From TrEMBL:
Keywords: ATP-binding, Coiled coil, Microtubule, Motor protein, Nucleotide-binding. This is Kinesin-like protein. It comes from the Eukaryota. Residues 339-366 form a coiled coil. ATP binds at G94, Q95, T96, S97, S98, G99, K100, T101. It comes from Gossypium davidsonii (Davidson's cotton). GO terms for cellular component: microtubule. One of its GO terms (biological process) is microtubule-based movement.
Length: 385
C-alpha cells in the first residue's frame, strides 16, 4: 500500500525497453552495429566518422539482445505492468519488420495466461473478463471482432472518457474463448492487409482486456464495490512513417501518406516528457484520444521499442532510440479504479453531503468573498449530484 501511495504522489515513469531483433536470414552476412553492453545499455559499436555527433551508448530500463526470447522480454519488460491490477498498457514501437507484432503476440499470450492464473487462484473474488479489439488505419477505427468494416466513431463520454461507439465487447467464458477471439482478430487484420496495400505497416492495433472483480461474500447483496483493471496491448504502425513525415514537411501537405496518429503520438510523448506544462494535443489523432489515459493519465505503461540490427536501418534505429529516450521521461499517475455499486455510492454521497452541509454552515457565518462564492457554487453542484 505504501508503494501505491508513493506512486500516487510522485507519478511513475513509463517503463521503456529495447529489443534487438536477430539478423534476418538473407542478411546474415550483413553487419550489425548494435550491441547490448549489459542489462540496460545498448551501444552503437561502429564509429563511422559522420556519426560521431551521436551518442554511442543509450541507457533504458532494460535492453534485450537478439538472443533474448519473448518470454524474457515479457517477464522483465512487461509483466509487472500487465499484472498491476490497474489501467495498464503495453506498447510496441519500432520501424516495419523490426519485430513489433512478433513481440506483442507473445506478450499478449503470456499476460493472458498469467491473468487467468491469478484469477483462478483468487477464490474469494468473482471475476468478469471482457475483451475488445480495434484497428486504426488512416484515422478510421475498425472493430476487429465484427465482420463489418465500416469505421466506428470516437466519442467523449462524460463518465467513461473517450469511447469507441458500437465497439464489440465480449464477456469471456474462459482463456480458450480469448484464444478463439485472438485468432479472429488476426484473420480480420489479414483481410485488411490484402484489401489495402501496406495496411499492416500503417495500422495500429489495440487489444483491450478488462477485468472486473468483486468480493464473493457480498455477491448479489449489492453493497460491494467492484475493482476494475484493464490492459491494453498496442501494436503500433511502423515508425518510419513518423520520421519520414516529420523530416520532410512537404509530405504533410500531400495528405495521403501521413500517419496522423503516429505523428501525434510522437508529439504527445515529447510534450509529456517535458513535464505537464502547456497543451498536450491528445485530441489531434484517434490513437492518442483513445489511449489518452494510458499515455498521460491514470495508468501504468510499458513501451517495448523494437530495432532491426542491420546497418541499412541505422537511421531508423536511432530515431527509435530517441523516441524511447523521450518516452522514458514521461510520468503517469496510476490509481486503483473502483466502480461503486449503487448502494455503496449512495452511502458515500450521503457522507459527502453531510460533510459539505457542515462546511457550508461554518462558511455561512464567515463573510462571503469572491472565491468563497466560487467554492460554494462548486459544493452546491456536488450536492446536486
Ligand atoms: P513488425 O510488426 O515490426 O513489422 P514483425 O513482428 O512482423 O515486424 O517481424 C518481422 C519478421 O521478423 C517476422 O517474420 C518475424 O517472425 C521476425 N522476427 C521479429 N522479431 C524476431 C525475433 N526476436 N526473433 C525471431 N524472429 C523475429
Ligand atoms: Mg507488425
Amino acid at each position: 500500500m505504501s508503494e501505491e501511495l508513493q506512486l500516487h504522489e510522485q507519478g511513475e515513469k513509463i517503463f521503456v525497453s529495447i529489443r534487438l531483433r536477430p539478423l534476418q536470414d538473407k542478411a546474415r552476412n550483413r553487419i550489425c552495429d548494435w550491441e547490448c553492453a549489459n542489462n540496460d545499455t545498448i551501444v552503437f559499436k561502429n564509429s563511422l566518422p559522420e556519426r560521431s555527433m551521436f551518442p554511442a551508448a543509450y541507457t533504458f530500463d532494460r535492453v534485450f539482445d537478439s538472443e533474448s526470447n519473448t518470454i524474457q522480454v515479457y517477464e522483465e519488460g512487461a509483466k509487472h505492468i500487465a499484472l498491476s491490477v490497474l489501467e495498464a498498457s503495453i506498447f510496441a514501437y519500432g520501424q516495419t519488420s523490426s519485430g513489433k507484432t512478433y513481440t506483442m503476440r507473445g506478450i499478449t499470450e503470456y499476460a493472458v495466461s498469467d491473468i487467468y492464473d491469478c484469477i483462478e487462484r483468487q477464490e474469494e473474488r468473482d471475476f468478469v473478463v471482457k475483451f475488445c479489439a480495434m484497428e486504426i488505419y488512416n484515422e478510421a477505427v475498425r472493430d476487429l471482432l465484427s465482420p463489418d468494416s465500416y469505421p466506428l466513431r470516437v466519442l467523449d463520454d462524460p463518465e467513461r472518457g473517450t469511447v469507441v461507439e458500437k465497439l464489440t465487447e465480449v464477456v469471456l467464458r474462459d482463456r480458450d474463448h480469448l484464444h478463439e477471439l485472438l485468432t479472429i482478430c488476426e484473420a480480420q487484420r489479414q483481410i485488411g492487409e490484402t484489401a489495402l496495400n501496406e495496411t499492416s505497416s500503417r495500422s495500429h492495433q489495440i487489444l483491450r482486456l478488462t477485468i472486473e472483480s468483486s468480493a464473493r461474500e457480498y455477491a448479489g447483496a449489492g453493497n460491494s464495490s467492484i475493482l476494475a483493471a484493464s490492459v491494453n496491448f498496442v501494436d503500433l504502425a511502423g515508425s518510419e512513417r513518423a520520421s519520414q513525415t516529420s523530416a520532410a514537411g512537404t509530405r504533410l501537405k500531400e495528405g495521403c501518406h501521413i500517419n496522423r496518429s503516429l505523428l501525434t503520438l510522437g508529439t504527445v510523448i515529447r510534450k509529456l516528457s517535458k513535464g505537464r506544462t502547456g497543451h498536450v494535443p491528445y485530441r489531434d489523432s484517434k490513437l492518442t484520444r483513445i489511449l489518452q489515459n494510458a499515455l498521460g493519465g491514470n495508468a501504468r505503461t510499458a513501451i517495448i521499442c523494437t530495432m532491426s540490427p542491420e546497418r541499412i536501418h541505422v537511421e531508423q534505429s536511432r530515431n527509435t532510440l530517441l523516441f524511447a529516450k523521450c518516452a522514458r521521461e514521461v510520468r503517469t499517475n496510476a490509481q486503483v479504479n473502483l466502480i461503486m455499486s449503487d448502494k455503496a455510492l449512495v452511502k458515500q454521497l450521503q457522507r459527502e453531503l453531510a460533510r459539505l452541509e457542515k462546511e457550508m454552515r461554518s462558511l455561512g457565518s464567515a463573510s462571503v468573498k469572491g472565491d468563497t462564492a466560487g467554492v460554494l457554487r462548486e459544493k452546491e453542484k456536488l450536492i446536486g449530484q
